[in-house]
Amino acid sequence: MSRFMVKGRVWKFGDDVDTDLIIPGRYLMLRNMDEMASHVLENVAPEFAREVRKGDVVVAGRNFGCGSSREAAPMLLRHLGVGAVVAESFARIFFRNSINLGLPLAECNNISKNVEKGHQLEVDLKNGVVKNLSTGKNFNATKLPDFLLDIIDAGGAVEALRRKLRSSKGG
Predict the structure, then answer these.
(1) What's the pLDDT score for residue 2?
(2) CATH (domain of 66)
(3) What is the pLDDT of residues 116-160, one digit of tens each?
(4) Residue 111 belongs to a domain
(5) Residues in a beta bridge with 132
(6) What spatial distance separates the first Cα and last Cα of the chain, rounded to whole Å?
(7) Are 48 and 2 in contact (CB under 8 A)?
(8) pTM value > 0.90
(9) Domain limits at 75?
(10) How far is residue 23's CA from residue 25's CA, in Å, rounded to a whole number?
């Protein structure tokens, strides 16, 4: 399996899941990441933070991550071990914040109509393919350009820059 392949169990959400639903503003004052993460998506899936496993895939409809430019939303999804977010579309600021923080994303038309909570997905970021392993159906997703894959692979923009600086200095 390539480094740009994610395989995991589906957590399904609808359209217009905003950053306040992902992490309510009242918890942004907390300084402990684990405590903050325990409130992720609590208003739409109270069990999510407790039951999500490393590599699980969040699937949503249109406009995932709309609302404020709350970097804590993708940061906490990644902290909980979410392997990727696959949605029909993303709010642009959420998309960019996710890439910058190393959270893999894929845009995939009609994905929310073709998966259910608990299905197993395989997300191939490099080739832009999402496979529903539970039903055998394959879906085309938008391929991410190599420079974005490099940022995700590094774990975020800061680490990607560190890698680039190290390689330009010869070590």
Answers:
(1) 57
(2) 3.20.19.10
(3) 999 999 999 999 999 999 999 999 999 999 999 999 999 999 999
(4) yes
(5) 121, 137
(6) 28
(7) no
(8) yes
(9) 5-144
(10) 6
